[in-house]
TrEMBL record:
It comes from the Bacteria. This is Uncharacterized protein.
Amino acid sequence: MVENGPKHLSDVERRRLARLEKTRLNARGRRAPAVMPSRLARTSAFAARTHSLNTDSNFKRIYIVPPHSVVEVAGRELGTRHRDMLVALFRLRARRVEARTDAGQRIVLCQTETSWRELLVASGLTVHVTNLLTALRVLQELQRVSIRVFRGSHDEFLKAESRGLLAGAGWSDALIGKIEWEGAQLDSKVTVSYGEWVRRTLEERHLVAVDADVYFRLKSDYARCWWPYIDSQPAHSWIDVELLASLAGRDYRAETTKQRVKLREEARQALGDMQQAGGLASWTEETVGSGRAKTYRYRYVRTGSPQAELPI
């Protein structure tokens, strides 16, 4: 007799089911969450600003969020509009597509099929034909960027970098591959194909759910920078100022007193923005330690309804 049941699942399958369940639980009460790779929700690879971005094709920078991620961005600097577009695309969902080349070789793609109208609505842009070129330009800027992610720990990366070595396993790829559109009307079909890493991540369920309704109600760049991390960590109830700085691509301890004061002001405004947008029920700032070791911590309570669990 053959027995069926969870006890016969492999360790890999159990971990995938556990990750999927966490994503389902975090999607409760969300009307249309953005279900996205966890590393994209918890990275500092997107600057907390819309303007004054470095567009030089030789641009290259390593972004570190200890101990969560080490990401290298090459091709140009990414900002809030690029994060907006990715949240919108993952809000519209992606699907797995199999095709064959002229030589008969099977290829597997991951695509989001939508319309210009749906993409503009999902990304919070005004639904008007004048915004089609804006949306396409942001997609093409994402397409031109190469991202390299290191899978090892933050400490392993620093040790390897100090010796001029490659830090273990990782991946390097464009987030977006091909962009196709059938016309320049609002209801024209648009298809966005993702890079190989995004496809594999979606298939392996390394995913988190981010409340996109709250995200697009946020007014400040810092709030949009920090909300995906905060909302993708349902078991967390606080975040310290050093991590907030890292998520914005900054080193809190290396900054001047004036810069630190300004960052804490940005943090308070961003958390207030999240509360105003309906993402947080409340938040408080507290001082930890004293003297040169003094730091700041922000405790928060997320809003959310236990109703309606959405399928992922």
